[in-house]
From TrEMBL:
Signal peptide: none annotated. It comes from the Bacteria. SUPFAM superfamilies: Uracil-DNA glycosylase-like. Residues 46-226 form the Uracil-DNA glycosylase-like domain. It comes from Negadavirga shengliensis. Pfam families: UDG. InterPro entries: Phe_SMUG2-like, Uracil-DNA_glycosylase-like, Uracil-DNA_glycosylase-like_sf. This is Uracil-DNA glycosylase family protein.
Length: 226
């Protein structure tokens, strides 16, 4: 089975656990949105149609406008069309994807990058919180203690499956130098999924708070990933 088919099977098997707090909606684009399953399958079959191992890069959890719609971490539909050559009529824009694909361009382009690297998330499904006006906003698995505790066993089971996808286990890149790195380090000390965890600043943080220093962060990513 190719890397692509293993990823597609992994995504198809993802399911929403019971007991999520009522104020939170958990997103599973692979079940809720048929196009996300089709787009992600096309993406993986284009860039991962082999049996070669990849360096694993773990984000936090999918966001509404990126993987929540495309099924592909750190890839909004604009980048999917322009950088990956996969067409869709959906139009979304996510700042994290802008940073990631500028970094990918300097790496050598999508084909070169995805031949070496694989994005996923500590928690493979995303969350939104509904505010008093009924609006949804992205939520991280660690933003509420009750949610983090509820999701820990789910995350452990997911990582057990993820590391069987021919990823390099000597080290993993963790996007997020704060709570995501702290949580992943804590469970890794017990379960030894990876020999080493390398933290990098999350693309969303860079774009929101350090956009003027974006090029420095791109160089930092390349130094770690090359």
């Amino acid at each position: 089975m190719t890397f692509a088919e293993k990823i597609i099977a992994f995504n198809k098997e993802l399911d929403i656990p019971k007991g999520i707090p009522s104020s939170i909606r958990m997103m599973n684009p692979y079940q809720e949105n048929g196009e996300a399953m089709d787009l992600s399958a096309s993406f993986y079959r284009k860039f991962y149609n082999d049996r070669n191992p990849r360096k694993l890069i773990l984000g936090i959890n999918p966001g509404r406008l990126g993987a929540g719609l495309t099924g592909i971490p750190f890839t909004d539909t604009q980048r999917l069309i322009e950088n990956c050559g996969i067409s869709t009529k959906i139009k979304t824009y996510e700042p994290s994807a802008v940073f990631v694909y500028e970094m990918i361009a300097e790496y050598g382009g999508a084909e070169a990058f995805y031949a070496d690297c694989f994005f996923n998330s500590v928690c493979p499904l995303g969350f939104v919180k509904i505010d008093a006006k009924g609006r949804e906003k992205n939520l991280n698995y660690y933003d509420e203690k009750q949610l983090e505790e509820r999701m820990t066993s789910y995350i452990l089971a997911s990582l057990e499956k993820l590391i069987k996808l021919d990823v390099v286990r000597e080290r993993v890149i963790c996007l997020g130098t704060g709570k995501n790195f702290k949580f992943l380090s804590k469970i890794n000390r017990i379960h030894r999924f990876f020999n080493e965890i390398i933290p990098l600043e999350h693309p969303r943080y860079i774009m929101q708070y350090r956009s003027k220093e974006k090029q420095q962060y791109i160089r930092k990513y390349l130094e770690v990933l090359k």
